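queue> pop job 88
queue> type: inverse folding (structure -> sequence)
queue> payload:
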């Protein structure tokens, strides 16, 4: 979609790019401490993650610049091949305004990969972990999928989404019980402000605790229990816009990829559960539901059997 080609898993460029992005995420996780205690950036050793982050970003950006240059060489604005062509076409129409530059294209694509890949992948991995832990919920999703799509090998499409409330509610429960961005993104007020009796001077870094909203027993009784029915009304319809549910954060700087992520999660999760059953190997102990908090909250590695239905 972005580069106009598909990369094989052993493609050298793809492997290098993936390595850089994975390293970037791992280091961004350890550099969180410096986000909370900024003085640590002056401590040698502790601040080495900053250097690695810059190196990884430089590698990713060098590749993006190379691809953009190649696209520019044979751009046909009437027949865009991919996302880069679309952005280059837009750039040409806006060239005189100065507010959209080639550098913006680099950062838009970088955001797409850094903010858009690992987030959805980790949510799906949490989903499969909870399917393994809750076989009865998995069966209910499969029964609903079979009832709408039949028992043959049809793949769910977005058109089926409104007919699959239990599947949707299950995805929402996955996002509630293990928010992969538990502390949202760091923000700062532009002016001195007061929130619930706390004075917050302008420029103070604020991290929203989305985790506490998702685990508040006042809104979610027995919050560690995996229960998709929390998101269904008595008629079995999905209840949206719950006050204490905000996996994509809230406000003007909420996740810009929310709609795309919801579509991806629906298509991938429903296709996987439609075609496979996920279960623990015979006699294996239940896996832990404690993840690892880096930039995102990632699930532990779990051995599971994937059985074709
Ligand atoms: C399950 C998937 C995802 C989850 C749970 C998620 C969650 C979040 C959260 C909590 C934030 C922080 C919002 C804040 O600062 O208050 C965020 C920001 C952001 N997300 Fe996502 N995200 C997901 C997928 C995506 C995808 C697919 C994209 C793009 C293709 C994306 C792009 C972004 C960007 C660019 C920001 C920064 C927005 C800004 O600072 O204004 N995300 N996301």
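queue> result:
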């Amino acid at each position: 979609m972005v580069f106009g080609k598909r990369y094989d898993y052993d493609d050298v460029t793809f492997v290098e790019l993936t390595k850089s992005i994975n390293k970037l995420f791992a280091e961004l996780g350890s550099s969180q401490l410096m986000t909370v205690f900024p003085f640590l950036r002056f401590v040698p050793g502790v601040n080495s993650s900053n250097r690695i982050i810059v190196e990884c970003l430089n590698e990713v950006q060098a590749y993006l610049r190379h691809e953009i240059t190649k696209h520019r060489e044979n751009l046909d604005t009437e027949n865009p091949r991919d996302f880069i062509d679309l952005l280059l076409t837009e750039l040409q129409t806006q060239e005189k305004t100065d507010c959209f530059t080639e550098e913006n294209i680099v950062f838009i694509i970088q955001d797409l990969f850094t903010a858009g890949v690992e987030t959805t992948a980790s949510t799906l991995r949490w989903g499969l972990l909870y399917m393994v832990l809750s076989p009865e919920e998995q069966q209910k999703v499969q029964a609903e999928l079979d009832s709408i799509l039949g028992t043959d090998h049809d793949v769910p499409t977005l058109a089926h989404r409104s007919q699959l409330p239990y599947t949707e509610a299950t995805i929402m429960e996955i996002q509630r019980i293990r928010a992969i961005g538990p502390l949202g993104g760091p923000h700062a007020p532009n002016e001195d402000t007061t929130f619930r009796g706390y004075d917050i001077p302008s420029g103070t870094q604020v991290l929203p605790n989305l985790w506490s909203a998702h685990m508040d027993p006042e809104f979610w009784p027995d919050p560690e229990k995996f229960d998709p029915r929390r998101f269904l009304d008595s008629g079995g319809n999905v209840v949206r816009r719950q006050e204490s549910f905000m996996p994509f954060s809230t406000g003007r700087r909420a996740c810009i990829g929310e709609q795309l992520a919801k579509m991806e999660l629906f298509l991938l999760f429903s296709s996987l559960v439609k075609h496979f059953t996920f279960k623990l190997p015979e006699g294996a102990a239940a896996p832990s539901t404690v993840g690892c908090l880096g930039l995102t909250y990632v699930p532990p590695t779990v051995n599971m059997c994937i059985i074709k239905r």
